Structure formats: C-alpha cells, structure tokens
Amino acid sequence: MRRISRKKALTLVKELDAFPKVPESYVETTASGGTVSLVAFCLMAVLAFLEFFVYRNTWMNYEYEVDKDFTSKLRINVDITVAMRCQYIGADVLDLAETMVASDDLKYEPVKFELPPERKLWQMTLLHIQERLRVEHSLQNVLFKSAMKGPAPAQRESDDDSSSPSACRIHGHMYVNKVAGNFHITIGKSIPHPRGHAHLAALVSHDSYNFSHRIDHLSFGEEIPGLINPLDGTEKITADANHMFQYFITIVPTKLNTYKVSAETHQYSVTERERVINHAAGSHGVSGIFMKYDISSLMVRVTEQHMPLWQFLVRLCGIIGGIFSTTGMIHGMVGYVVDVVCCRFQMGVYKRMDAPPSEQGDDGQFVPTGSYCEE
C-alpha cells in the first residue's frame, strides 16, 4: 500500500511538471535561431551589467519633521577676513532675547588681505562650484555622499611676508541659544551694557574704516568636511569707508545619515544686501558686517538609501525572462512572414522545379512533382 501511494504521489508530481523535457530528435536547430539566441545572450549580458551599476548606486531621501529640540545650543563656525587691523574691530552675537554672547572663543589673527596665487585659484574654483550649485541642485546630493566624519580641516597658516599685515582674520566658533540673533563685526571692541551692548568706536579714526571682507567659511552646527556652505568663498570689496553689509540667513536643522557619516548639522539659505551709510542723504545705520539669522521650526532628515538585494534579483529575472520571451516572439513572427512571402512569390524552398510537372508511376497513374504552396 505504501508503494502504491508513493507511485501515485510521484505520478501526480510528474503531471504537475511545468518544464517537460523534449527529446532531442524532435528539436530542430537553425542558423537564424542560433543568431537570435546569440543576440539575446549579448543583450542580456549588457543589461545585467548596467543593472548591477544601478544596484550599486545610492540616492538621498529627504524627510521633513518638526524640530522638537529647543534646549540645545547652536554652534556658529566662523572664518572671516576683514581689511582692517584687529585692534579696530570687534565681533559678537546679540540674540532675540537681548542676550550678548561673548566672542572669547574667536581668535583675531593679523594677516594680509590679498591671497597668494594658490589660494586665489582655490577661491575661484569654490565660487564656480557655488554657481553650479545654484543651478544644479542635485549636486548637493553628491556633496552629502562625499561628506566624511572626522576633525575639521586644518586652519590655514598666516602668510609669511615682510610687510606688516593690514587685515584681520577672525576665526573660531561660538555657542548661542537656538533663537534668532545677529552676529556682527563692526568698529571697536564690544562692552557689556545694561540695555544690550555697545562698541568702543570713538577711539578709531574714520579714515581707517574699510569693511571689505572675505568669508572663507561660515557654517552652523557640527563641522563636516566635504560640505560647501552658501557663503563659503564670498568676497566683498568696497571703496567707501562707511559701508554696511547685511546677510539674512535662514537656518534649517539637518540630520545627515549616509554610509560614511551620521551627524546633526544645519543647512542655510541667505540673501544679501549692502549700502553706503550717508546720513546727509538719509541712509542711516552703522558701518560693519551684519549676519542676521533665524532658525526654521522644521527639521530635514537626509538619508542615503540603497536598492535592496531582492529588488535587484527581481529586476534581473525580469530582464532575462523578458528578453527570452521577446526575442522568441520576434523570431517566430519574422519566420512566419518569411514563409508567407517565399510561398507567395515561390522563392527558396517553395521555388518550382524545372522538371516536368508530372510523371507516370509504375501503376500507370500520373504523379505530380515539384513544390507547391497550399492555396
């Protein structure tokens, strides 16, 4: 009984075989079929190779959510060169709550304002990248992928020159509250004041005013090597002593998660405005560089994603099966059309023979000869 049950089960399994074997004596191979098969194999190899590159590629996924972290501090990273001596200018931050943040962590370094040739070339390259980023927004994804976790790039050394430095490089970082504020560089050192703060500008000669400046780096949050910020490489030159430069910055908290780095940083957008201070003409204000920033309530989560392996295998099977089916149908249709045309015009195997149309057989009957198409 067990043997009978096994035989029945084996018979049932054989009946369910979706891939029946055809004896080789019933298989006919042709030159046209071999050519189509060769083309199909080459096409499958090329498409599978390209699909592998698609599988290796990654893309950036952007998600938006409300930023619930309002108690932490915001780090401001600064590297600005101003065309004035260090003893004449001061930098600090005044936030919306009228809280002044001292710039004790900022360093004032006397330097020359003119750049050496190699750094000038790098600045021109950086400005060209900034122009392309404004047009090709997808390039930002390339920068995110190239970002690396590690220490900030080494600060550039002062230029060795016998002439006395005529500019001041302000660089370093500060921690401020996560509220709107104003980071500014103006005449005189800042001093505390009950109603805010003030700068000692009375002791500085008006002839020494020159707020031409170059922003080598300005970022918010954790410094990530490989990222380029909107104001990096910006240079402003003015011939007027009384000149106000204003930058209006909107900061967006960003969580970056790639295969190389996982960090919490900040992106920002900026609009610029500058004008000459002329009280006689009604243009009032204070000469200096003012960066007014505001923090967005939305946070962007940027994640690098990759095609899963199962999806790659499904697409690969689709390529192989689709090419097999398509080339088989095309080969069958072309063969059918060729047969019809050859039969209609009596070409190839359907061509009439030159022998007489009929011959007499042994039994006295006439036997037709030659090839004829079925009508």
- Beta-strand percentage range: 25-35%
Our count of domains comes out at 2
Number of strands: 17
SS content category? alpha+beta
Major sheet attributes: 13 strands, mixed
Supply Rg. 39 Å
The tally of helices reads: 5
- Enumerate the spans where pLDDT stays under 50 for 5 or more consecutive residues: none
Helix content: 25-40%
Q: State the separation between the terminal residues, measured CA to CA.
A: 59 Å
The whole-number mean of residue pLDDT values reads: 80
Order of helices and strands: HHEEEEEHHEEEEEEEEEEHEE
3D shape: elongated
Region (Disordered): 356-375
Pfam families: COPIIcoated_ERV, ERGIC_N
Main location: endoplasmic reticulum
Protein name: Endoplasmic reticulum-Golgi intermediate compartment protein
Describe the structure.
The protein has 375 residues and is of the alpha+beta class. The chain folds into 2 domains: 31-59 and 307-344, no CATH class; 68-145 and 163-296, no CATH class. It is 27% helix and 33% strand. The chain has helices spanning 2-15, 31-56, 117-135, 139-146, 309-344, and strands spanning 58-66, 73-82, 89-95, 100-101, 106-111, 167-177, 181-187, 190-193, 196-199, 213-221, 234-236, 243-257, 262-276, 288-295, 298-306, 358-360, 366-368. The strands form 3 sheets. Strands 1, 2, 3, 4, 5, 6, 7, 10, 11, 12, 13, 14 and 15 form a 13-stranded mixed beta sheet that branches. Strand 8 and strand 9 form a beta hairpin. Helix 2 (31-56) packs antiparallel against helix 5. The two termini are 59 Å apart.
